[in-house]
Amino acid sequence: MNKKFSINGLATLIGLQVLIFSCSQPTDERIPKTGLITDNAMVVSARGEASRIGVEILQKGGNAFDAMMATEMALAVTFPFAGNLGGGGFAVYRMADGQIGSIDYREKAPMAAHRDMYLDESGEVIPGLSTQGALASGVPGTIAGIFTAQAKFGKLSPAEILQPVIDLARNGFVVSTQQESRLRGILEVVRQVNGEDTFYGIERKAGDTIKNLALAETLERIAQNGKEEFYKGETAQVLVDHIQEMGGIITLEDLAAYEAVWREPVVFDYKELRVISMAPPSSGGVTIGQILKMVEPFDLKKMGHNSAEYIQVLTEAMRRAYADRNYYLGDPDFVAIPVDKLLEVEYLKSRMESYDPDLATKSEAIAEGSVLFAESMETTHYSIMDAEGNALAVTTTLNGAYGSKVYLDELGFFMNNEMDDFSSKAGVPNMFGLIGADANSIAPGKRMLSSMTPTLVERGGKLWMILGTPGGSTIITAVAQTILNAYEFDMTMQEAVEAPRFHHQWLPDQILFEENTLDSAIYRSLTSKNYLINEGRTPIIGSVDAIMVLSNGKLEGGADPRRENEAAGY
Ligand code: GLY
């Protein structure tokens, strides 16, 4: 690898504070950079309109679960890149009284799916079949998720919650600069998949207003008829007809059978923190638990934020955790997962016994394989805190950018390509370079393993932080580093979100750094220990949306400037 820089595009873009990997420590004179501070409530998401609609619902007397429905649907309107009706997600909650839980609305494999559906006659993976087109979609879970959560805990009616979203779809949203480039990037593929006349086949420029009338009508029907509309009503029929016409296998029976599932979150302690995160079929909670518990015995504060020593010990924990992730984790309704064992202190201590501060562990020494992986930022996360003190961390996705690229013009939304999150064939990487084992093989009705990591953190028994991020396989490590930034290095929420990040996922055996953020001394130190460095693959790692409850009870938003995230509140 070549030279390293100390000042760079990303640093310039998001401000110079705490942005460069270097051995220097923040000085006492440092003026902390904070995000939006509010007294009562907050929503942080990938789009300003979605955050503001969530807050509007809170101000109308709704709680976090009402705001979840509004924010999620507003993201489906304004952020079709990842916001969705045709995808799925996970939400982790903590009520004001400390009660915790989570809801799994991950997509499921259709009943006609089978283990080898993406393999050719000689047993090789057919490129593109699990990522593009109608066969790539799992049965969507988003509408079930938001309605199930809101029905249990919300206070307003879905019609009242969805009205501002319907208005937004009808009146339109303004295309942002980043959105223009993303839409341009998929224009040809969307035309190829859906035909020239498809809604997102039209070229859009920053500043244009997009009015999605088909989506407004779909949302109106859903507001009137509830989730049954999506799973059993006219919307279900149109979706199935469209998908089957394009060669997909989702049936009316698949939709009618879909249910979101309440799950016990993964809970573990890290020093004085109690971390509450998503259980399988997301790998998020278990893997972030393994990483943080493996580094807990080390004096990270003394090592210094993003010092070579810190990067090394965290990398070795990431390597070992992802090796376990890929082997053991899958849908708990289909496979037995030793969650307790994987988070046991003695087990994790034994995993770190091979850690050598002078030399990189080789991933082949833990397991075999060699893969390539590609950038991904396509999921989206939002964090909500209401005025009663209820907290929600929600991550939702279509998987790839605009999912399978199948756009249902009659309904106004994209379908997911979540089937690629299954292991199509043991040992063959998916679009994130993650290789899977039997635990994550395809089966009818099974949920594919996810990396989404919606997470809540308590400190001293009180809610302290709500966070999560997009980023495919890098989600887990981005969330772990944000928690460590705030806890070990006393960063404000905004600083913790902005600090440069790195990532290792066992295979490929390389540390990924955000473009041009790596100090040359650290680069030399790591390469001298045989670490492979990759700075070129992706300009950013994750795009964290977070909220911190400050010691005075106020809320601080952390809206990641790597993307167009925004905090709103009152
Ligand atoms: N589709 C990305 C994930 O669930 O991890």
TrEMBL record:
NCBIfam families: g_glut_trans (TIGR00066). This enzyme consists of two polypeptide chains, which are synthesized in precursor form from a single polypeptide. InterPro entries: GGT_bact (IPR051792), GGT_lsub (IPR043138), GGT_peptidase (IPR000101), GGT_ssub_C (IPR043137), Ntn_hydrolases_N (IPR029055). One of its GO terms (molecular function) is leukotriene C4 gamma-glutamyl transferase activity. The active site is at 379 (nucleophile). This is Glutathione hydrolase proenzyme. Its EC number is 2.3.2.2, 3.4.19.13. Cleaved by autocatalysis into a large and a small subunit. The lineage of its organism: Bacteria, Pseudomonadati, Bacteroidota, Cytophagia, Cytophagales. It holds the Pfam family G_glu_transpept. Pathway: Sulfur metabolism; glutathione metabolism. Keywords: Acyltransferase, Glutathione biosynthesis, Hydrolase, Transferase, Zymogen. It comes from Algoriphagus faecimaris. L-glutamate binds at residues 106, 397-399, 421, 450-451, 472.
